[in-house]
Structure prediction request, 123 residues.
Amino acid sequence: MGDYPIADTFPTVHNYSKVATFAAASTKTAVIDTEGYCLTGIFKGADIVGSAFTFEASPTPTGTFHPVIFEGSAYSVSGTTVTAQYQVIDPKYLNGCRFIKIVSNAATNGDAGKSMTLALRSV
Prediction:
């Protein structure tokens, strides 16, 4: 049937979600263990006031976290401040980063526990 691949010849892709939580008045999430998956997107609620996010990575969950740098500057994604949205992450920048933190350009308002759902995918 033409030159199209048969459906069972595609590799199995596993999708996974995880929650990232900010402490009160914080700009950084708690440590996120990607468990070998790659971050591909952020479901940001309207209660997260930041509009731009950068990333930090560490080889261990208790190690020193360093900025993820691409072409001389911190890799970042941005959107709008007041709307719930899905922000796409290019997986090539975070591939291989098991322990990460997401850094917002604005501290969370109010109570601790503001969170975002992360979309992760097998590589």
Notes: The radius of gyration is 16 Å. Residues 15-121 form a domain with the Jelly Rolls fold (CATH 2.60.120).
